[in-house]
Amino acid sequence: MSKFNFDTFNTNRDEIRKEVTAFDLIPSGKYTCRVRDAEIRENNKGTGEILSVQFEVSEGEYERHVLFDHLNILHENPQAEIIGLKRLDRLCQAAGIPEFTSADELLDQEVTLRVRLQQSDEERNIITRYIVADDAGEEPKREVAKPTPPPPPAPSSVPAPPVPAPRLGKPPAITPFRALF
Fold first, then answer.
1. Which of 26, 57, 81, 159 is 20 to 30 A from residue 168's alpha carbon, by CA?
2. Residues 103-137: pLDDT tens digits?
3. How many CB atoms lie within 10 A of CB 124?
4. How far apart are CA 62 and CA 83, in angstroms?
């Protein structure tokens, strides 16, 4: 039989609770995090590869809470792959990595994340943005393009041609589509 030495009176219960609650949800906001783990592995279907990254909040009220992100870096759907690679590019910029060659390069890097608490059937935290230091703490605002009115018509000395009057009467016969071939 195995022996197990556990003294319930000398256990720091607050520390144990912190570890247990490290995976609890946190409110939407901006958080400074440290990359705790990163690995490239096969996706669930076996049709591509994902970069799984585990972040730990490194300061503030939610320090030690853990967040996850999974980036498609090789995928059968080209659009999913493009989205994943764009997110990887932004993560590397936020971490100050100019050229990504290995998941190990991300370990212990400090990055600032924008996190959203998704409220659906199953609540979960979603990393919506990696914030680059060049953003000076602010995310760039998306400018909405305002439609420009068309220029006024140029004045002309030539009168406009007359508009023909609508023709009244029976409409022309329509040939069925199949009859064309």
1. 159
2. 999 999 999 999 998 887 788 899 999 998 765 45
3. 13
4. 29
